Automatic annotation (TrEMBL):
Designated name of the protein: Uncharacterized protein
One Pfam short name: DUF1091
Amino acid sequence: IIYQVSPKVEFTNIKCTSLDLSFSSFDYCHIKAVNRSFKYLSLKVKLHKVPITKIKVNIAVLKRFNGYRPFMYNVTVDACRFIRNPKSNPVFSYLYSLFKTYSNMNHTCPYNHDLIVEKLNTQFVNNQVTAVLPVPEGDYIFETNWFAENIQRAVVRVYGTLS
């Protein structure tokens, strides 16, 4: 008998924090379990001061070893420049690919609308972190820090397990 073992990603929590409520606020930020094996996450950030023409994003992946520690990636990019030329940063391109098809953040600056990630499911993420670039088992945080006009405006942390 041959058993095939396939790794599985599971979202365990999401925390969205607006650091400047006069600039942006989250309409919703949640994980929804459709059934025991299908979960997705959705978030919507309402922008109060548009248009936004300067955006930087820091993405860090943290893994739990006696607390969460940096793991593999911690990159910061000028998002407006990156969207114009995605090949400019292959690491950020991979991290952005984890959510870009489920998002409306796929055009160049300026942004003059609410930002949405809608129904990003675990099966899609599972394929990205097991087939595209294999990642070891463990508990992780996918942390994004959002800066506009060089001021940190929001933090989104997605907690997950790869087993």
